């Protein structure tokens, strides 16, 4: 087994990979779901595993890969999945889901290694976490101890294993990044545990996928661990501050001047402030008790640095958030969160429900005793002289307040009955119109965030229709979250009344015909 090389590998896209079959376990996970398209694009024959093949169907790459239903606790399932496989990616980690997850993960790793040896697998690739080089196994948190134990099981097996050790992966959807995002957005002032001052070397998910994918392109087997990182070391609190700077706000962070065993409390704090479940927040908080930085750049001996260099943390954050800008949020939910083919930093269907930008919604639906064309006429005529079919006094007050802080207020509309994309309606702008079905208005009032109002007419085909009304609000900072909860009580009667009156207005025009 060779453990080093001075020859840099050619770029992935230049090699011929048609004769290599790659197995990706954890295909529906955060990393696996992003790695597979990179391998497919490089020409590999890829086999994706999941407990159920149905869970793979939501991915765009489903038709481009082989599928294997496999319970990794079942050795027979594993042996079937690894048949004729050259490179096996082991990307499974329970993050404390099972009560005795350390034992379970060790047993799965042993089965993976045994099945891989029997099948003649040439290379195993495992993604683990960065730990201090002299750390004793038992001194690590359960989360990190389990990962390191799995790494050692695989490295001690007869099958060559590359262990890539990384700290926080920066990309929308990763648990660590989402915690950073929510803490920074929601807390302008933080009093934090001591670990906020620990050192960490994050890596962009784009660069992590680059290194992972290139492990399938090596011309010989390797059996050792490699550290991968973004090339710059930060304190964890700097990650929060720099994220806030990227978002246009400032975070004041104060750490306790003494060390306390606050793992559980830290996990509870993170789970309370962010949408991350306690089962994820606690092990991540525990893992932050140690510095997480690279100790060598030996990976460059077998895989060259990405063309153009590694992304630093601010650019990684920018990449992760770029499609959450004002011009793209509306189209993202209108188009089922449109994806870029070459951006692993974006959200995927497999990412947790709490990942990505926070979006508050108020949804109302009303049956209408009129065809959709009558309902659409009311929708298209909304605002201006026709008003907003709700508590007019509240709309007027909101308009006055908006003008006082420099917003457009209630400014009328160009045409009382017809709309085109870009038209202004009071403090709204027509973002999208698909007559006679859908109207999406983007708010231009002064807000700490972005807001849209989506109005739809659904025809039942029997002379009746259904009215759908959804208000979307994306807060920018903690002030935006506070704003939503302050006005939420008013929504309980403003929006229902609006929906009921629009439905009634459409029905009245049908009766008057």
From TrEMBL:
Domain NAD(P)-binding: 26-169
Spans traversing the lipid bilayer: 482-508
A single MF term (Gene Ontology): protein-containing complex binding
UniProt keyword annotations, A-Z: Membrane, Transmembrane, Transmembrane helix
InterPro entries with a match to the protein in the record: ComplexI_NDUFA9_subunit (IPR051207), DUF2867 (IPR021295), NAD(P)-bd_dom (IPR016040), NAD(P)-bd_dom_sf (IPR036291)
Protein name (record): NAD-dependent dehydratase
Organism this protein belongs to: Corynebacterium phocae
Lineage: Bacteria, Bacillati, Actinomycetota, Actinomycetes, Mycobacteriales
